[in-house]
Structure formats: structure tokens, C-alpha cells
Amino acid sequence: MAAQVKICGLNDEEAIDAALEAGAEFIGFVFYPKSPRAVSAEQAAELSQFVEGVCKVGLFVDPDDALLDEVTSHLRLDMLQFHGSETPERLARVRAEYGVEVMKVIPVATKDDLAAAEPFYEVVDWILFDAKPPKGADLPGGNAVSFDWSVLAGFKCPVPWMLAGGLTSANVAEAIRVTGAPAVDVSSGVEERPGVKDPAKIAAFVAAAKSAA
Ligand SMILES: O=C(O)c1ccccc1N[C@@H]1O[C@H](COP(=O)(O)O)[C@@H](O)[C@H]1O
Fold first, then answer.
1. Of the candidates 126, 93, 97, 129, the residue with the CA atom closest to the CA atom of residue 113
2. What was the ipTM of the complex prediction?
3. Is 198 a catalytic residue?
4. pLDDT tens digit string along 44-89?
5. Does the domain made of 4-211 have the CATH classification 3.20.20.70?
6. CB contact at 8 A, 169 and 175
7. 105: CA distance to ligand 1 center in Å?
8. Residue with CA closest to ligand 1 atom 4
9. Is 175 in the pocket of ligand 1 (CB under 6 A)?
10. How is the chain split into domains, by residue range?
11. For 2, which DSSP code?
């Protein structure tokens, strides 16, 4: 079965159209002010008002309830992605309160890091394995860095999961082959510069991911 694809950090209509036309199953909006891809709740609501048939994901980093309330009162998100140091207890509460799917990001460098996902299996719908941010990075993700995919080879995750970190149209097929990832997530790899998506790169990425054996 072809891998599912999430295009993250969307902030303009052209890029959203490119993701939908290419066949991405998930589109992501970043609600983290420090990110060059950040959108406000109002912008995301406007951008997504006519979008149907895909899973709309909101990316947050240690958000407080006020931010979650603000965003979810403006638009219907299907999934909330948490890229900070949120605890299983916090995510269990959020999932129950907001009634949406929840995805927890686990930063990975070595095989030992995979154990950090275990406490979340009972309380989230998805796990996303992403590269650890480089030392001194401003962002916990979206840094265009990969990790050693072989740490996921043969790994059995009891919940649906995605792979992220430095993926591009040139390496995504190999990443899927090595890890067996059922879904992949990309931001930097489909941009012409940080915060500016390239529709042609989006199309190429989705095609490469979908054609991976
Ligand atoms: O994209 C961002 O700006 C961002 C900010 C804060 C946390 C995560 C962020 N992006 C996510 O990071 C991974 C990997 O991104 P990349 O493809 O290496 O650029 C992905 O899940 C992005 O959605």
C-alpha cells in the first residue's frame, strides 16, 4: 500500500492546492509563533475554509489551553500535532476535551529514543518520529535534518505512525524502504526557502512517496 503523505507548514492557497492535487492525505498548519511557517487562527481558517477530504492538522509546541481554544474556535481541525515536551497526561486530557485525534512527536537519534513513545501509545492516535533538532536550533522541528532511518527498521509501532525529518523528493522513497513507514511528513523539503512552499516540489514529493515500494 502506498505511503500516506502529510505536507506541513502550509501558509498559502497555491501550496494547499498543490498538496491536494498531488494526493496528500494530511495538510498541516503551524501554530508556533517562532516558526517562519506560522499562521494565525484567522489565516488558517480562511485558507482551509473550502478544503475537504483531507485531514487538517494543527501543529503546536507546548501550547496552553488559551491557544488551543483560540485555534479550535476558528477552524475545525481533525488532528492536533504536539512537537514539544507535552506529557501523556496532558495529551490524554486534550484528546478528551477537544474530541480530535492527537499525534505526539518523538525526537529520534538512536534506537534507544524509540522507548520515549511507549507512554503515549494508550493516549494518542498517531506517533511521529522526527529528527532531534540540531544544538542551538530555534525550532524543535522543521530543521531539514534527518536521522539514521535504520533505527526504525523492523520496528513495530502499536499505533499508526509517520516519519519526518529532512525528507525530500530525492530521499523519501529510500526512507520508506528502510523504515517501512506507512506515512511521511515534510516541510522544509518542499520549500524554496523557509516559510515559502514550492508547488512543484510538493508534487514531486508526493509522487516520490506514493511510488515507493
Ligand atoms: O515546520 C516548522 O516550522 C516547525 C516548527 C516547530 C516544530 C515543528 C515544525 N515542523 C515539523 O518538523 C518536522 C520535520 O520538518 P522538516 O521536513 O525536516 O522541515 C515535520 O513534522 C514538520 O511538520
1. 129
2. 0.98
3. no
4. 999 999 999 999 999 999 999 999 999 999 999 999 999 999 999 9
5. yes
6. no
7. 10
8. 142
9. no
10. 4-211
11. P
User: How big is the chain, counted in residues?
Assistant: 213
The DSSP letter of residue 38 is: B
Residue 55 is among the residues annotated as catalytic for this protein: no
Residue with cell 511510488: 211
Q: Where are the beta strands (DSSP E) in the chain?
A: 4-7, 26-30, 55-60, 79-82, 101-108, 126-131, 161-163, 183-186, 191-193, 196-197
Q: What cell was used for 159?
A: 499505533
CA distance 79 to 104: 11
Atom of ligand 1 nearest to the CA of 190: 17
Q: Is 191 in the pocket of ligand 1 (CB under 6 A)?
A: no
Cβ of 8 less than 6 Å from ligand 1:
yes
Q: Is the CB of 162 under 6 A from ligand 1?
A: no
